């Protein structure tokens, strides 16, 4: 087990159902450490609850196999998808938006009223844009902001 930060391991951040090894470069490893220390650890500390990783680093082959965007920051080790045990991803996304420095924050597939739905996608880059988006389940449209409906 390789620790990337106090609460997160390389194994959690590279786990995939695609059997290709998901091997990462030294540069991507550094980016993973940064997203752990800059995003995941502050979230873990604020909520004091387990942060469950859905997807972290993806090799180009893994990203393609799971239908990721061709320019996905997951391929650089800059992005992570997760939820916090016992909290909605909407609440977590709003907290991140209000409190952390990040490149891109996306509330993905959250369904209001269904507590365990969706995940938070958050990236950390060399030059952070602080860009907030919401994508609803079954839609390919990215709406500006962290919102509960397409009307905001
Ligand atoms: Zn993602």
Mean pLDDT: 95
The DSSP helix count reads 4
Top-tier CATH class: Alpha Beta
Determine the strand fraction and express it as a percent band.
Answer: 15-25%
Order of helices and strands: HHEHEHEEEE
CATH third-tier fold name: Muramoyl-pentapeptide Carboxypeptidase, domain 2
CATH architecture: 2-Layer Sandwich
Tally of distinct domains: 1
Oligomer: single chain
Task: List the ions, cofactors and other small molecules found in this model.
Answer: zinc ion
Description:
This protein is an alpha+beta fold and 152 residues long. The protein has a single domain, classed as 2-Layer Sandwich (Muramoyl-pentapeptide Carboxypeptidase, domain 2). The chain is 29% helix and 19% strand. The protein contains four helices and six strands; from the N terminus they run H-H-E-H-E-H-E-E-E-E. It has a six-stranded mixed sheet with strand order 1-2-4-3-5-6. A hairpin with a 6-residue loop joins strand 5 and strand 6. It is globular, with a radius of gyration of 15 Å. 35% of the residues are buried. The mean pLDDT is 95. The structure holds zinc ion. The site of zinc ion (ZN) has 5 residues, from strand 2.
């Amino acid at each position: 087990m390789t620790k990337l930060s106090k609460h997160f391991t390389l194994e959690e951040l590279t786990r995939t159902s695609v059997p290709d090894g998901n091997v990462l470069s030294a540069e991507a490893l550094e980016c993973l450490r940064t997203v752990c220390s800059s995003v995941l650890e502050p979230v873990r500390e604020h909520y004091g609850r387990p942060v469950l990783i859905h997807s972290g680093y993806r090799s180009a082959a893994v990203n393609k196999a799971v239908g990721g965007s061709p320019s996905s920051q997951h391929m650089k080790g800059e992005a992570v998808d997760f939820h916090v045990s016992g909290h909605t991803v909407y609440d977590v996304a709003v907290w991140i938006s209000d409190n952390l420095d990040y490149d891109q924050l996306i509330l993905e597939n959250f369904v209001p009223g269904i507590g365990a739905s969706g995940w938070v996608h958050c990236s950390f880059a060399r030059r952070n844009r602080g860009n907030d988006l919401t994508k609803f389940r079954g839609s390919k449209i990215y709406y500006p902001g962290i919102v509960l409906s397409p009307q905001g």
